[in-house]
Amino acid sequence: MAASAPPELTPRQHAEEESGAAMSFFDHLVELRKRIISALIAVGIGMAIGLTVARRFINFISQPMWVALRANHIDPNLYYTHPAGYVSLYISIGLYLGIALAMPWVLYQVWLFVAPGLYKHERRAVASFIGSSMFLFLCGIAFGYFVMLPQVLTYVVAFANGGSVGGSIKPLIDINEYFDLILVVLVGLGVIFELPVVVFILSLFGIVTPKFLMRNFRYALLLITVAAAIVTPTPDATTMLIFMAPMVVLYFIGVLVSYAVLRNKRAKELAEGQAPPG
Prior knowledge:
By secondary structure, this protein is mainly alpha-helical. It contains nine helices and no strands. The radius of gyration is 26 Å and the shape is flat.
């Protein structure tokens, strides 16, 4: 008796074939251990590199403060008030730089761990998500360093410098406190710039739509104003508006992203509805 031909695989079964064979729980633990060790090694190497360039990076992050002091005709000096203050800053910056340098490899290890359990289209989506998140986060940091910090620092120094009567009030800026300030500002802006990615995820799950986002823009603007007031380290309206402007632009970019997601989902649903039954 002739052997019957194997049945054709459905698209879903093809996808399951692409995702690889199932792994046991023990295999998952071994794979997780391997990825964690690889990520930790990368962080260690990154920290070693970060410590070698930390001194130059301290000069780099001090530039906005030096510019603000010179603009107000003040000696561009930063200070540390603890005997080990500079050493502590040096080590902290080295560690932060190490994590930042190792982050692409760490994310790649996360990808290698989760990718075998994903379908082909899901792999593309996750890869795009990681790439877009990193790009937008770096854009937020760049905006904070090159646009936000010069405005904020020049204002706060000029405010104190112009308020003295009958004497002089000069800033004695602790470099560790200065670093804490710009870390909050830069990381905060980096997170804010992730707004289109958040909208993409919510749209993908059908939680928000372009119509919903546009209809509730006035509430979003209120939340943006509150967030800008919290994140802005100065009380003036100009600085807060500088914070708000990119957030509003990112909101409307999110609307376009939501529209693209919705259109793509409808196109897929229409294609599946017109496809002949398997």
